[in-house]
Specification:
- By secondary structure, the chain is an alpha/beta fold.
- It has 33 helices and 49 strands.
- The chain has a 24-stranded parallel beta sheet, with helices on one face.
- The radius of gyration is 34 Å and the shape is globular.
- Residues 693-819 form the R13L1/DRL21-like LRR repeat region domain.
- GO terms for molecular function: ADP binding; ATP binding; hydrolase activity.
- Belongs to the disease resistance NB-LRR family.
Length: 1263
């Protein structure tokens, strides 16, 4: 089945190319017309037996191999034909052809008369001819015969919209009810959360059942927080924790450190009833589990973790030894599910003739839901008995491949040839990879998979959409569970794709250990690899012999964060890519690439080039020699300032995505000649080349997302009308004028221009209007006919005096209004005439200096509003809204205290309150606000300089702020004293310059984390773990503590009472004298300790007493010089050490080498002012950093057994550094050199180290 997958579709394309008039002329002039005719005859003979071969390959390995050989040969033929066509295009652009008419040029290209028959071309042709003849002869040996085309009595009916959706579920009511009861029950357990396992084989419906539970209304009402994570093969504790944090915190935050992430997650979960679904867990490691669930212990009793898994080992280790596995469906339920997907009804009453076949098929599916759904959908358009009998009697049911469910194979077999080809291509995607529909369609097109005959008014992109929707409807694809705009494949479908793709497709996994055979590499056509932080040349070195490779595709496993960086060795770009001349798809999206090599222009077969979110500044001019290029994606390249000049040569370009490129301020030359463009995401009016908006009429198929800049250069609205926006099917539209003074602007013209920019209302999802100079918005802005509009942003429209009726938009979810300086009142005109803002979830107002009044009609408006942000609206005081019942997050900054008082009164459900720079917020006003904060769980106060104290007594705060768990107070300059309420779990107090009294709760039973820095007037001289009044711990549950810039602090005491402490940081406490290091051994949970810049510290510290589980230690700039430290007896758990020297006289690493344990994987040397050289033997060291070491000049060449695992080397502000150990450089993943002029020069392109450092994936050289 693997080899047959693309042949029918592929051969059809080849016949079309071989029969073209252009090829015949080329072949004639090249003298290869005889070979071409032979190929056609041979291929026709082969095509005649394909149906027989497809049937026999299931049981005959020889036939299967014959098909594989034929597929490889078809690829080779296609490459030759593409070579000829590309050469013709090249000659067309490089020869003067003015005397030749367009018609003649198409039939007999000028280039043909100049072709020469190279010896390499002759050899390729002869090899293909010989191989074709061998295959023709072999078909007879294999007994392949021509089968007559059987006409099926197949009465295809069109797909009905009433056919049940794929998510319809049959036969799980009992399981759902039992599990719902289990989720809602407060069953006794020794921790705050319990596990609800759903165990069963792949495809049995574990994820579907978990989805039912997750969306069950009773369950939703019962739990305060929910999160869903697809775990899959790689149990990545950091990645899983990050997804959970983002789900519960509703924010995307960067965490460099796993411990900080777990602390933040624990703070979010604390005291909340929490539901977590861990879907598709494969790990058996109890240690991984224990690491992950650390923060879960803080949640409220009754919290639940649902685990779906095929494997029982981990659950057994957790004490779940008697597991009830999710069973396959009963026969009756299986019949109902199969009928529902095959016939659109859940019984066979109206299709009695099909029922016997249905019963047989259902029996063979063994009640497996995924198989029933997939196979049912493959029969959905077939009502004849013969089609159903064929499925029932197929030999595939006898397949010996235990890894692939036979029913899924049958579903695959029922696909048309081109759908098989498209599905197999998805084998390049790793499991659980979330893919975008539009991007996948562009990849299919680039590979030449969308060449099926289409209606004249159609395009291959529309064909791709139809194919994608067909695969989705048959359950080969599914909607991603947490992102409804992306898609995934079920694990079993991914396995199926991998099995049918066979050797034509290779997916390099990050943990792949196998060595690929030379023969396999030479034949490989499509390759993907999972993007990881550092990608080395070694990973791909063997691919230099993969001369026929067409696809070089970077994917990603897990959830991709915007802050993540990925580094690719430049050697891959410079040395490898030129060795892959047949590439059609090249995607290096997301890598930190700053330069694209000139060799890119030699990849003349390239159709798809994706450099999005890289750091490239320009593209080489010879990119325009890629005549076949259809898709060029450079979106998010924020350093890109220039595109090549000869864009007019890219006649085949259909998609150009240059969105989010702020330095790109003009359109490429010749862009208007590219009549096939469908995507042009950014349009700059004017510029050096004077692009006119009317020229957009040339792009009749323009669709998708568009950003138009420079609209102030439009002189007449008629030019916009000529662009015909009303007929363009846009999903996103952003329009912008310059910020030039509004006095010189023509507000009437700008309104007319904006009016003419109205797109078709069918598809628009996002609308952004920037710096519009009209007095009011045209009627289409806010028109309820835009049924799909979800995001609207109006920014810096400084002359507008009123807002458009955006409340009429039925699906609007996010609304951002910023910089509308002339708006004084927001009232009924904003709401419209119908039910206002029924779907709005996020509303933000910013920089509206004249806004004074916000009024609405009586009753509830904003029924779904969850987040409200008002920033820099200092005049807004009068608010007549009656209630904001669903607002959970309220942020107010640079506003009047009257606004704060009013909003907090009507938003009774607020759980997260952030306030900043509130004028008039004094002690009296704050007390009035505080009484409405009973539901608030997180409170952040910043730069409120009129407050002297938040509450006078801890008892007062504890009585009102009953749910407050987290409190952040920043830069409140007049705050004099602070008393921490007993309910607080996380406290941050920062840069409050006047505060003198800081009091923690007497009992402190809830306090988990305390961070105090920048409050240098605090009078307290002691800090520690003991309550002096009752000889008990004052913070018995404290886990994280940071103290910085506490000038008066003299001593830290009684650390042994803080038995739960995991991180402790003390920095820049100049007068700290006493630290009880003898108690550190009692802190058995402490993993991170930092004591830096405390120059008065008792000279006896440190004495070699350390916590037994310490992993990270940062220490130095103390009273005792590091050179005077005795051996420290560090625990073997210590892996990261940061030493801070100061002016302690250390000139040689031999003075502290005795302090470096062999367990270290990371070492930082900071501010050793006299240190000149460094040489140690640390075999496990992976990361070595030097900072502010002005006399450091070399790293001697290490012994071969030393530093053998070093991967990361970093120098900052080491001006005399000169020499690097060359033996270490080839193995580095990162080398960073900052403010080291000599070393920077040696590592630059003309320096002596350049050949060694240039292949390093992350090389940073900065002044």
């Amino acid at each position: 089945m693997a080899a047959e997958l693309v042949l029918s579709a592929f051969l059809g394309v080849l016949f079309e190319k071989l029969a073209s008039a252009a090829l015949k002329n080329i072949a004639c002039y090249k003298g290869v017309d005889a070979e071409i005719k032979k190929w056609q005859r041979s291929l026709k003979q082969i095509q005649a037996v394909l149906a027989d071969a497809s049937r026999k390959e299931i049981t005959n390995e020889s036939v299967k191999q014959w098909l594989i050989d034929l597929q490889h040969l078809a690829y080779d033929i296609d490459d030759i034909l593409d070579d000829l066509a590309t050469e013709a295009m090249h000659r067309e652009f490089t020869h003067d052809s003015e005397a030749i008419t367009s018609k003649v040029r198409k039939l007999i290209p000028t280039c043909c008369t100049n072709f020469t028959k190279s010896s390499s071309m002759r050899a390729k042709l002869d090899k293909i001819t010989t191989k074709l003849q061998d295959l023709v002869e072999e078909k007879a040996t294999l007994g392949l015969s021509v089968e007559g085309e059987t006409k099926k009595k197949n009465k295809n009916r069109e797909l009905q919209t009433s056919v049940v959706d794929a998510s319809s579920i049959v036969g799980r009511q009992v399981e759902e009810e039992a599990l719902v009861r289990q989720l809602l029950a407060d069953e006794p357990c020794d921790q705050n959360f319990s596990i609800v396992p759903i165990v069963g084989m792949g495809g049995v419906g574990k994820t579907t059942l978990a989805t039912l539970l997750y969306n069950n209304q009773q369950v939703t009402d019962h739990f305060e927080l929910k999160a869903w994570v697809c775990v899959s093969d790689d149990f990545d504790s950091f990645g899983i924790s990050k997804v959970i944090f983002e789900s519960v915190a509703q924010e995307n935050k960067k965490f460099e450190d796993f411990n900080l992430l777990q602390v933040a997650l624990r703070d979010q979960l604390r005291g909340k009833r929490f539901l977590l679904v861990l879907d598709d867990v494969w790990s058996e490691s109890y240690e991984d589990w224990k690491t992950l669930v650390g923060p879960f212990h803080a949640c409220a009793p009754g919290s639940k973790v649902v685990i779906t898994t095929r494997k029982e080992q981990l659950l057994n280790k957790l004490g779940y030894n008697h597991l009830n596995k999710l069973q396959c469906l009963s026969h009756d339920d299986a019949m109902s599910l199969f009928a529902l997907n095959a016939l659109g009804v859940n019984k066979f009453n109206s299709h009695l003739s099909l029922k016997p076949y249905g019963e047989g098929i259902v029996k063979k599916c063994d009640g497996l839901p995924l198989a029933l759904i997939s196979l049912g959908r493959s029969l959905r358009t077939k009502q004849d008995e013969e089609s159903w009998r064929e499925v029932l009697e197929s030999e595939i049911w006898m397949s010996k491949d235990d890894a692939i469910v036979p029913a899924l194979k049958l579903s695959y077999r029922d696909l048309s040839a081109h759908l098989k080809q498209l599905f197999a291509y998805c084998s390049l995607f790793p499991k659980d990879f979330m893919f975008d529909k539009e991007e996948l369609i562009l990849l299919w097109a680039a590979e030449g998979f969308l060449h099926q005959s289409t209606p004249i008014d159609s395009t291959k992109e529309r064909l791709g959409h139809d194919c994608f929707d067909e695969l989705l409807s048959r359950s080969f694809f599914q909607l991603a569970p947490n992102n409804q705009s992306l898609f995934v494949m079920h694990d079993l479908m991914n396995d199926l794709a991998a099995s049918v793709a066979s050797e034509f497709f290779v997916r390099l996994e990050n943990d792949m250990k196998r060595n690929m055979r030379k023969e396999m590499l030479e034949m490989c056509r499509h390759m993907s690899f999972a993007r990881e932080e550092y990608v080395t040349y070694k990973k791909f070195e063997t691919f230099k012999i993969a001369k026929s490779l067409r696809t070089f595709l970077a994917t990603f496993v897990g959830v991709e964060e915007s802050w993540q960086n990925f580094y690719l060795s430049s050697k891959i770009l410079v040395d490898l890519l030129p060795e892959l001349p047949m590439l059609r798809v090249l995607s290096l999206s997301g890598f930190c690439i700053s330069e694209v090599p000139q060799s890119i222009g030699s990849l003349r077969h390239l159709r798809y080039l994706n450099l999005s979110r890289t750091q490239v500044t320009h593209l080489p001019e010879n990119v325009c020699d890629l005549y076949n290029l259809e898709t060029l994606i450079v979106c998010g390249c924020r350093c890109l300032a220039k595109l090549p000049n000869n864009f007019l040569k890219l006649k085949n370009l259909r998609h150009l995505d240059i969105s989010d490129t702020p330095l790109l301020n003009q359109m490429p030359f010749g862009i208007c000649e590219l009549k096939s463009l469908q995507t042009l995401s950014k349009i700059v009016i004017g510029g050096e080349r004077g692009f006119e908006i009317a020229r957009l009429k040339e792009f009749k198929n323009l669709c998708g997302k568009i950003c138009i800049e420079g609209l102030e250069k439009v002189q007449n609205a008629i030019h916009v009308r000529e662009a015909n926006f009303s007929q363009k099917r846009l999903s996103e539209l952003e329009v912008g004028w310059s910020d030039e003074p509004y006095d010189s602007r023509n507000e009437m013209l700008e309104k007319e221009v904006l009016n003419e920019l109205e797109p078709r209302n069918v598809k628009l999802i996002q609308l952004i209007i920037r710096s519009y100079g009209g007095l009011e918005f045209p009627d289409w802005v806010g028109n309820p006919s835009f049924l799909h509009l979800k995001h609207v942003s109006l920014r810096d429209c400084k002359r507008c005096t009123s807002l458009p009726p955006l409340g009429q938009l039925p699906l609007l979810k996010e609304l951002f209004i910023e910089g509308l300086d002339e708006v004084e009142a927001v009232g009924l005109e904003f709401l419209g005439t119908s039910r206002a803002f029924p779907s709005l979830e996020i509303l933000s107002f910013k920089h509206m200096h004249e806004w004074k009044k916000w009024s609405t009609s009586s009753g509830v408006v904003f029924p779904s509003l969850n987040v409200l942000k008002i920033c820099d609206c200092p005049s807004l005081v009068e608010v007549t809204l009656e209630t904001l019942p669903s607002v959970n997050v309220l942020e107010i900054s640079t506003c009047d205290s009257g606004l704060l008082r009013r909003l907090i009164e009507i938003a009774s459900a607020v759980t997260k309150l952030n306030i900043e720079s509130i004028t008039g917020l004094n002690d009296v006003v704050w007390r009035g606000v505080m009484k409405y904060l009973g539901a608030v769980e997180e409170l952040k106060i910043r730069m409120c300089n009129e407050i002297r104290y938040l509450w006078e007594l801890e008892a007062v705060a504890s009585k009102v702020l009953v749910k407050l768990r987290r409190l952040d107070v920043y830069e409140c300059d007049n705050l004099e004293r602070f008393i921490c309420p007993d309910s607080i779990q996380v406290l941050r107090l920062s840069d409050c310059k006047s505060i003198t009294i800081f009091s923690l709760p007497k009992e402190g039973q809830n306090l988990k984390s305390v961070y105090v820095w920048g409050c240098n007037k605090l009078l307290e001289r002691e800090w520690g773990g003991q309550n002096m009044n009752n000889n008990r711990s004052s913070m018995p549950m404290l886990e994280n503590a940071l103290i910085k810039d506490w000038t008066n602090l003299k001593s830290v005491k009684n650390l042994n009472y803080l038995v739960h402490l995991t991180t402790l940081t003390i920095v820049n406490c100049k007068n700290l004298e006493s630290f009880p290091d003898n108690e550190l051994s009692d802190l058995t949970l402490l993993k991170e300790l930092r004591i830096i810049d405390c120059p008065s510290m008792d000279a006896s510290f440190p004495r070699g007493i350390w916590p037994s589980k310490l992993q990270i230690l940062s220490i130095g700039m103390l009273k005792k010089s590091i050179s005077d430290w005795a051996p420290q007896n560090f625990p073997t758990s210590l892996v990261a050490l940061e030493l801070y020297g100061g002016d302690d006289g250390v000139s040689s690493c031999s003075q502290f080498s005795h302090l470096l344990p062999s367990s270290l994987t990371s070492l930082t040397i900071y501010k050793f002012e006299k240190l000149e050289s460094f040489s140690v033997g640390l075999q496990h060291l992976q990361r070595l950093l030097f900072s502010n070491c002005p006399n450091l000049n070399k790293l001697p060449h290490p012994h071969p057994q030393n530093l053998t695992n070093l991967q990361h080397l970093y120098f900052s502000n080491c001006p005399n550094m000169m020499d690097l150990p060359e033996v270490l450089l080839p193995s580095l993943l990162s080398l960073r050199i900052i403010e080291c002029p000599h070393l920077k020069e040696r590592c630059s392109k003309r320096g002596c180290y350049w050949p060694l450092v240039s292949p390093i994936p992350f090389l940073e050289l900065r002044r």
